[in-house]
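re the bet — no i am not wrong, look at it urself. input seq straight from the record:
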Amino acid sequence: MTQPTLRLSALAVLLSTALLHGAALAAGDGAQASRFYDDALKRFEKQDYDGAAIQLRNALKIDKNQLAVHLLLGKTLLAQGDVANAEFEFNESLRLGVNRVEVALPLAQTFVAQGRQAQVFSDTRVALDGLPTDARYQMLLLRASADLDLVHTDDALAELQAARTLSPNDPAAWIAEIPVRVRSGQFREAQAAADQALRLAPGNADALYQQATIAHVRGQLDAALAGYGAALKADPGHVEARVARAGLLIDLGRDKPAGADLDELNHLAPIDPRANYLRAVLAQRAGDAAGAKSAFTAVTEFLDPVPIEFLRYRVQVLIVEGLSHYGLGELEKAKPYLDMAWRQQQDSPLAKLLAQIALSNKDSGGAADLLETYLRGHPGDSQALLMLASIHLQQGRYAKATALMQQALQAKDDPSYHAVLGMSLLRDGRADQGAAQLEQAFAKDPHQAYAGLSLVTLYLQNGLPAKALGVANQMAKANPDNAGVLVVLGQTKAANADTAGARAAFEKAVKLAPNLIQAQYGLAEIEMRGRDFAAADKRLRGLLRNDPRNPDLLLQLATLNELWGRIPQAQQFVESAADASSLTQTRANFALVAWRLHHGQADKALDAAKVLLGKTPEDVTALQAYGGAQRANGDVAGARSTLTQAARRAGFDVDALCDIADEQLLVGDVSGAVYSLDKALQARPDYLPARARMARVDLLQGRLDEAAQRAQAVVKDAPSRAVGYDLLAEIARHRGQAREAIDALRKAHAVENSTRTLLHLFDALAHQPDAGPAVELGQSWLRSHPKDTAVMKVIGDAMARAGNLAQARRQYEAVIALDPGDIETVNNLANVLLLQKDPGALAVAEKALAAAPGNVMVIDTAGWAALAAGQRDRAVQLLRDARLRAPTNAEIHYHLASALAATGQASEARRELATALQNAKGAAWTDQARALQASLK
């Protein structure tokens, strides 16, 4: 049975009736959209990209959320060279839920084309993990090219060697090695790579061209000309060889044959800026000022609209653009292009041109820096020496000295130095030393509010509210009329359960600073704790009238409405808070990701997490949030990569490292979890949560004895907690000791009488030959906990597995009556109705789809239900969407094949069936799939 893991708000389900009516009206349009897509696919395969793009946009006019259409449009735009819009379409595909394997390579290609080479390595969407062999090979070649642009030549060579292990007889990796070796001055190795490429592919134009570049760089100009000629003989349309030969001929003063090559380039690449620049050089040499200006202008008019970031690693093009502006006397326009090129070739004479531009702007210091850098590599350049000497005659040079806080303290024992040093130590993970420095700063000067506030926060985080209150009282005594200090005092008194004292502190702060919103928050929180929601609402809405886009205020209102039971209103406030946040404000973004994950909105959670990570890409908790959203959307490889980054950036924060380890285990990254937990235990060897998690890691690695030793130690040190017994149960299960596992889980439930421990025990009992005791356990629990929907659901699942569909249906319907927003259960109910051949299955499936339109299992159920109801075109559209989101799910392939066969698309149906049966692994639908396959032959 298809069982998604999402949960959404009740509001989405309540709206589903209207959405269903719209879906019915759109059925005809869906068929038209499907025909547009099919025609576009045929055009794309024939390389009719213009026609394909038209048809795909026609399809999107009907329904802008068609995943397959966005994906194919991205590939079409990439083929047309429209890389920015191609990236947009690939991102739309990802937003709609496409499996990243489908877009990783073309998306990475758009990064490189836009000058974002580093993103090829940092963006988890294009990570190598999980890619099939051919895509992995092509990605390695692309990564090598990006490494070369970034001057990471060793990394580039490693990428190419890895590529060759995947496809040892393909010449592309050897061809790609040549420019890497040339960049490093390894000409012998470059020639060896060229020889090997030509052995694998004699007469290959790319290999011949790259071989010629070796001779060109080494000054072997006759050999270079011959090599470019050989490449052009093999492929007369080879633009790079044609441009290179024309440039070399101009350098040799052979203008006529150079002009012939440029004439040929008029046909091959009429707007190539390098060719136009070479035409300008020839015109200048011939004294044709108008012709030179025209050619320079052609270069600038073509390249100026291109964002300079797109050209970042195209040094030839940067130089051509910069020199063209320079030739036109447009020095300020020339500067950014020449500067970007110079930063990649700092020993080039471009430094002198840039210095002249700096001097024209009266920036003598910048000019001197350029020249000094250049002269380190060219100490005898008389022109550069003269320019620098002139600058020194006009202006002096100076150097700035910087001291560390420890050095400052050696000279003067200043409390502010202790405060800054304390915060530095805290951020470095040395909490005890940092706290000591903060305490020293505060003891020397209680007016050091920064140190005092840091101490209060630290004590509260460590569960020491009494110590926090002591510091807060000292701060208030030293600063009796400081409203901000009074807010801290109120918050600390509240943490110490002194409600009256907290209210008094907040009210005094309000009198001193009526506009201090944190004091009003404090009073509202006291009202919420007292369940006086109306009073808190009145207070906060009064503030909102004066500051309608304050993210913190909007979040307070979200919290209030959630406590009040007004879930739709709470969601609106969370979304509004995130929308109102600036680029430096992230609290509301974190809240939005958490809200959407909690309420089952996985696709929207991923969108929110991307926005969050874009704001703070190095933040550990932001990386965790993004990894969680990736996992919720089925992107396991991406989540692993993201969590690895989080663990590296977490320092020795034991709580963060344990959380990260949990998330790594959820995505099957055992080695990553070991790394995280080892770091935590290095910091705190006795830390119980890390010890318990490490036992689970031992278990996952098959080290049962080590896991058992750790588990027994945890039970000994924490006998009143369930965690040790849970570990013993897991170990027993791995040893095949079902009875011992159940006994341990009974002990866990006895010491921690909770839904969590009951569900663990229920699961163990349900997998016994007789599931009756599990059901009895669950029903007994429900007699004392009649609204525990989690237990109702597992009873329903057990009934469904046993084939008792009527009982399963009753359980699911009871859950939905209590929690209409439980989309997992709505979807499960739809599956039960399908098995019962109940015509109401489609309506229920559509309700789930309306609430969770990005969940692949919900989409699959809706598509299967549509097929059962005779809505074949809609079934194909939905099941194609599901297949793109989960390409390894065999059952979805079978469902799509069935729908395709029903619509007469036998060829595609056969392909889907072949994939389904290849990965069926004894699935219940295998016989039906084989029968369908036989009928299509």
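see?? The domain at 282-393 is CATH 1.25.40.10 (Serine Threonine Protein Phosphatase 5, Tetratricopeptide repeat). told u. also The mean pLDDT is 83. so pay up
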